[in-house]
Give the backbone structure.
Amino acid sequence: MPIGSFTVLDAGPFDGVDPDDYVRAAMQWHFAPETGSRYWLERADRLGFDPRHDVKGVADLALFPDLTGELRDVQVSDLVPRGYGPQARPLHVFESGGTTGAPKRVVQMDDWARHGSEQVTRRLRDHALPVGALWLTVAPTGPHLVGDVLHQAAASLGSPGLGVDMDPRWVKKLIAAGRRNEVDAYTDHLVDQCRRILLGQDIGVIAATTPMLERFARDSDLVEVINGRAQAIIWGGTHMDPDTRDLLRTEVFPDVPLIGMYGNTMMLTALLERVGLTASEPCVFDPVSPYVFLSIVDPDTGQQVAEGERGQVVVSHVSKSMLIPNNRERDTALRVRSAGGHVGDAVADVAPVPAVEGETVIEGVY
Amino acid sequence: MAPVATTEPLHLDALGPRGTYRTRVPSTVTDVAGAPIARLSLVPPLYVVRAIDALRQAPPIAAADLETVFATAGEAFAAGTVGGLSVREYERHVSRTSGTPLAVVRAATRGTARFVRHAASSADRGRPRGAARDLSDHVLHETHTVWARQGDVFAVNASGNHPGVHRVWLEALALGYRVAVRPSRREPFTPYRLVAALRQAGIRDDQLMLLPSDHATADTLVHGADRAVVYGGDDAVAKYAHDARILPQGPGRSKILITADTDWRGHLDALVASVAGESGTACVNATAILVEGDPAPLAEALAARLAVLPSLPPQDERARLPVCPKERARALSAYLKAVAAGTHAWLGSDGIADDLGDGSAVLRPAVHQTASARAPQLRTELPFPCVWVAPWTRADGMAPLRNTLVLSALTRDRDLWEALIAEPSIANVYFGDQPTHWMSPGVPHDSYLSDFLMRSKAVYEGPS
């Protein structure tokens, strides 16, 4: 195995490596006995193809089935590529939201933490985010990736960050159980913490989940201070429908740029809204070559949909740290042509997969 | 070259605090056969929150304007062109989307217009005798009591089973509440027309709104209002049972009781009307008929009358039965079959879905006889003419008659009259030859709405 191909795999987001070269190098890394993780080496036998031979570029990632369900049970140590050496430990282990059963786990090694953060920072700079301004981040931390991405982003912009933590799993549980009063009480608890920070500190950047921004919008004192002081609002962690986005931009926070962020645990990073979109354009997220590839497919056939059409979002993450190919997300989006030389589709107007309404009979005339 | 004329789809925009509001991707309202009829803008929660804020800031409609506003709006609703639709077009859309027979829709248009015209006076019917209307009411000096609102914003999470459900919230408007209506996604035409007609008549955009939304966002509306009425099944009733700000409207389980001293043969028309009038889709349609004596002859006669109702598309003027998408009709039919196990079917044993061949199906009547007045089937209310006939004895007593929106009693037993009036779980009692679906402006439906919306407040004006 020529050591040269591993150099490709060490490429940073702006080194301009060819994505196909990168994917080939990643296949060598993850499936060679000396470097691959125990998980992939054992899984390779049951793939029905030889990734080192058959995956010749980005397009061939489609050969992989969606194996992310297995990430619920795999031992974390089995996910670490051996090539990092016997002493290597992941910097972080992140878990998916856990909305559909047990959470899936992913590992983040130092090099990926660096590359992932670098691309986020670069895109935030493209959005003209201020350097050194005080951040307030209201997003889940701990097992959740999003909080870490935002804290890293603030740090790399030289910005001290204040944070308010939240436990989305508990909130989802309360909602599912119809315990609305408790949801409201928990939300109020978060807002109280934010209010103290927003009114007491000179916050320049607010990074928050969509529901928190919507909640801020109800309180005129918060709206006033945000419009008066903030230089940017970053939303992420959950979806934002285009009508809400428009209301926030035009009516609630007309004085502050609103920047979307789309990411999830299996992507192992976050995508920032395309710079320079006009008011009438939907919120577009470009992929990140050579690490994150997106495609929009018909959920029934798995075939790519036409540009401008809505379909299911399929994400592949390829890095030295992890390989998570062909993950079918519980998101739908419009397929958009990617910009900036990135390979694969870009996505717009990301939304949750609609719930299926069956023909169940509820008694009564309503 | 002249631009090619294209048919713009019919849009039902939200009617919000700053006029109409159209979402980027409106949802599609389809008719019973699945054909698209209109585009409905479902607003997001943030829009609802801001709309409620605007309602809260707005003043009540001035009492002096009420009569004129309701008179003008009633006229526009019944005969005008509202939101680009003539009354005939409106009625056809309602019929095609909700599956309600056109004749029922037309009667409902006239009925609703009457409720609009009488909204102010009917709302006032619920005012306690001691309570003054306001500070200028001279009775105040005598009673030291004023009738006051318990809140400012009233919300309705409405249903689409019958156009008449929208008569309820008119009184809230008359009582000074600012009102937001979340329409049924199946039949948004009626509340759209009513809200638009009232706005045309002078009610401000920030006093009355139509806020179509998905199910989850409806919760934001209901919980953001000071008082709300929510239509739904037993689950909705249970969900809101302990929230004093919310009045759930669940299954009506209306019933008819016929005692041995009265011959039902003289009242068959009223029985048929109670079961199948208004196409049998209202909460005030009879779900059960309890007979002192042998119920079989009554069930047989009723079945014979209902069996001849024709299967027709809803927009046919001769149609009397409800229509729905065929998948739903089949689901209802299968459900009925499962529930009816152990009963005797006089009508509907072969299933009640009658396919019209265009993707829709007529829901045909069903008449079943149960062995006892305590059979669980008597609680099963379904959205078409579906009735359970049961024997009733004095030993059964009040138990089978409980939990009833309207009870029509064909009896000369005055003690029974008193007992029925005294029974707390029966909302309304009609004696004699009166179908269960009778309603009139100013007559309570589920108590006066003002019992839920208003309170009496001691006001003493001493020398200052």
